[in-house]
Design brief:
The structure is a homodimer.
Chain A (H helix, E strand, L loop, with lengths): L34 H7 L3 H13 L5 E2 L9 H14 L2 E6 L2 E6 L1 H7 L3 H6 L4
Antiparallel strand pairs in A: 1-3, 2-3
Chain B binds a DNA duplex through helix 3.
DNA sequence: TGCGCTGTACGAGAAAAGTCGAACCATGGT
DNA sequence: ACCATGGTTCGACTTTTCTCGTACAGCGCA
């Protein structure tokens, strides 16, 4: 299976599915996304790395926070994931006890075309 | 009698260069541009507005700082213009006593294609 | 019932960024 | 010579952000 290419928005998986994805945690609507907020969220190397990892290595859907090899305490990770979600970069769902994240590729592409590709091309 | 200024003060930099423009102030090289730094510089509404204005309303080359209608004290503007220059978003040249700025469009486009367009499309 | 797991909430200290006044400098005009 | 212009530097203050420890909560499982 090919690694994801970020230039295009493939299907939007936001539909309510009968087996049911958990409802996403509160997030800004597409037309409420603000460029300065997104930029601010992506102005941190750690968060940039989170998003990039999510873009390049998502095998299926989304990953729990511990998926990434981040050597920070959990409370720090919560902080950064929340910053990304507040800015509208990430969508998070509660799967039982773990919270998984995915990049809102379609939404970002709709409002800020090309931005996702920049993050995917980023090198630490 | 023409008021000949003393040649003791070697302000040679003020001379207009026939073929060229004044040398830009120190700035990061193209391949030293960092996405997180650029994002950080563009995560502020005021700076976003500066860059966007520069992109959309540049009539010729570049503009002095006071060109924009920013109701901030001068020291604040210096701060923000410097932040933009440090991140590599702006290039600044000293024209005699005034300092003019232009967006490093080509450089940004080379490293982060599409980013300039996002700023140009931004709405306050 | 208790343990291990994932992750949150709160709060405090540290670090970074923004804000702005005041002093200053060089230039050009009158 | 003086003043206005366009801008810098410095220092102080305020605000925001980062970092992380501690405490806690829900779920699954023996």
């Amino acid at each position: 299976m090919p690694p994801v290419t970020t230039g295009r928005a493939d299907r939007v998986r936001v539909l309510p599915e009968p087996p049911g994805l958990p409802t996403p945690l509160p997030e800004p609507a597409v037309d409420a996304l603000r460029l300065e907020a997104v930029m601010g969220a992506l102005s941190d190397p750690l968060r940039l790395r989170i998003v990039r990892t999510l873009l390049l290595e998502r095998e299926e859907f989304d990953h729990p926070c511990g998926w990434f090899a981040l050597d920070r305490p959990k409370s720090s990770l919560t902080h950064h994931f929340r910053a990304l979600r507040d800015a509208g970069v990430l969508r998070q769902r509660q799967y039982g006890l773990e919270r998984r994240s995915e990049v809102r590729i379609a939404d970002l592409e709709a409002r800020f075309p090309g931005l996702v590709a920049l993050v995917a091309a980023w090198t630490p």
